[in-house]
Specification:
The protein is an alpha+beta fold. The chain has one domain. The protein has a three-stranded antiparallel β-sheet with strand order 1-2-3, with no helix packed on it. The termini are far apart.
Length: about 80
Amino acid sequence: MGTEYNITTGTSKDRDYLDDKIVEYNLSKVPATQDEKFINIEYVIKNDGIVIGGITAVLYCWKCLYINVLWIDEKYRQNGFALN
């Protein structure tokens, strides 16, 4: 095996590979606690058809929630949708 290593900018394919490998490893150590391994969660809040907030997240194999985006338009933040 060679001793020359290169660090390069990753691609979306590289990201997906890394995601798959860490999940594969984790599942080899701890069994999944939900039937569907990945559950995508996307909700938006609309006011008169205009998006004023929302969330995108993934519920992983072990009922662990990873939030990608949680956003509420600034003028609605005091309405109980999100905290400042």
